Amino acid sequence: MSTNDDKAQEAAQEAAEASLPEVENQGDGGGPAGPVILSFIIGLVASLIVGWVLFPKALYSQKKQPFNFNHKLHTAEVADGCASCHYFREDGSFSGIPNLESCMECHEEALGESEDEAVFIEEYVDKGREVPWLVYSRQPACVFFSHAAHVEAGGMDCVTCHGHIGESETSRVYEENRISGYSRDIWGKSIAGFKHDPWDRMKMDDCAKCHAEKGVGVMRDDVKNPVKSHFLETVGMIWPTTTTPTKGTSVQTEKDGCLVCHK
Ligand code: HEC
Ligand code: HEC
Ligand code: HEC
Ligand code: HEC
Ligand code: HEC
Predict the structure, then answer these.
(1) Measured in angstroms, how far is the CA atom of residue 147 from the centroid of ligand 3?
(2) Residue 154, exposed/middle/buried by CB under 10 A (0-12, 13-18, 19+)?
(3) Which of 125, 150, 215, 249 is least surrounded, with the fewest CB atoms within 10 Å of its CB?
């Protein structure tokens, strides 16, 4: 966010500087407040456009999946729902995106006439090449994530973290952050940081927030003692320097908790 803010501020300053002298000259009748407010508004609007529209556009490059995959159609075709393709192996590891071999059960030859299937057959089935799917939820390599812990032990639904991909009829565009190379799903759609649904964003703090709520890992002690933790948090809000926050809502404050999610 800081680069974003900096850019926005720069733009605001530039816009304010550019518009000030001009407006001041005609400021005869309106009194001194009018032009100042006007230039402030122009600057504000310009900075909002730069920060919220142009900057995100420039920050993310759009990539298409190799071809569309229709989740709705396939979930109805298979015997075992999502688990027909996304299952846990004997050793507890998660299969992830199915490989070409599992598609071949049905797609040895074309089943229909759609363009997407034609691309699939020609480019991948016939050539025996794995489909290079782009993974929307892919975390940086240093992050350790286990589906077994969440889905099997935690009993969580796919929707909680992934949204409604499982019911979609086409693959959505993949957006890649030009600076970090990460998927946009990590830092989220909203450049201002708003989060409406739990799957809108999956940054470090989003993992940690849910862990704190559910009492996972290093957060457990704080969550065990919610009254004390709430009290200290409230005191900390009124006199910020008097207490250290005890609630594990931000992992950045946890000195020894890093290895829960990092390898
Ligand atoms: C016939 C096999 C098949 C079935 C059945 C299936 N999927 Fe998928 N799934 C795929 C393939 C192939 C991809 C990669 C293409 C894509 O992202 O759309 C994928 C991708 C995904 C992803 C995207 C992961 C990411 O971050 O990129 C999610 C989430 C997902 N599936 C959930 C589900 C859910 C939930 C169901 C059941 C409602 C389901 N799938 C049923 C084959 C299947
Ligand atoms: C259980 C059988 C089955 C499996 C397994 C299966 N498919 Fe399909 N697939 C179908 C059927 C049936 C259709 C519909 C064909 C039609 O009528 O157009 C289809 C259609 C498609 C289409 C065209 C989509 C559209 O919207 O028209 C694509 C692309 C495709 N499949 C890719 C895959 C991939 C990739 C896999 C492996 C991850 C896979 N399929 C696994 C049965 C299957
Ligand atoms: C607690 C959140 C959470 C839940 C619940 C969850 N996932 Fe994921 N999923 C993730 C994260 C995070 C990743 C990225 C993992 C990584 O990059 O190491 C991921 C990755 C994936 C991938 C891509 C894996 C790959 O590497 O090819 C698929 C497919 C997927 N999930 C499907 C599912 C399905 C199906 C379910 C429900 C059975 C599910 N997920 C439940 C968070 C979750
Ligand atoms: C919506 C809630 C939720 C989100 C989001 C979530 N987790 Fe979890 N996580 C859990 C729960 C609940 C467990 C404990 C499951 C159990 O063992 O009962 C867990 C367990 C784990 C564990 C096992 C550690 C332990 O002490 O048992 C790891 C590692 C982990 N999560 C990493 C992550 C990462 C990395 C992310 C973000 C990419 C993430 N989680 C997002 C709820 C969540
Ligand atoms: C609850 C899981 C979790 C815990 C605990 C956690 N992290 Fe993270 N961390 C993540 C996830 C997920 C990402 C990637 C998404 C992001 O950048 O926010 C990340 C990213 C990072 C990055 C940026 C790496 C990169 O390649 O962009 C650093 C540095 C980092 N964490 C340090 C720490 C430190 C230090 C601690 C301990 C104080 C810690 N993390 C604890 C989940 C966690």
Answers:
(1) 6
(2) middle
(3) 215
Distance CA 16, CA 143 (A): 43
Q: How far apart are CA 250 and CA 219, in angstroms?
A: 10
CA–CA dist 205, 225 (Å, integer): 21
What's this model's pTM, rounded to 2 decimal places? 0.84
The tens digit of pLDDT for each residue in 49-60 reads 888 788 778 889
CA angle (62 as vertex; 61, 63 as ends), nearest 5: 120
CA of 87 from ligand 2 middle (Å) equals 18
Q: Specify the residue with its C-alpha closest to ligand 3, atom 43.
A: 161
Of all ligands present, the nearest one to the C-alpha of 205 is 5
DSSP three-state, residue 183: strand
Name the least confident of 87-96, 99-108, 239-248: 239-248
pLDDT in tens, 111-143: 999 999 999 999 999 999 999 999 999 999 999
Closest ligand 1 atom, CA of 134? 27
Parse the chain into domains and list their residue ranges.
2-60, 205-260
Asked if 50 and 34 count as a contact pair (C-beta separation under 8 A), the reply is: no
Ligand 3 atom with minimal separation from the 143 CA: 18
> Is the separation of the CB atoms in 158 and 166 below 8 Å?
yes
Check if the beta carbon of residue 94 is closer than 8 Å to that of residue 86: yes
Question: In angstroms, what is the span from residue 252 Cα to ligand 3's centroid?
Answer: 23
| Atom of ligand 5 at shortest range from CA of 211 | 1
Q: What is the pLDDT of residue 259?
A: 85
Report which protein residue has its CA nearest ligand 4's atom 40: 207
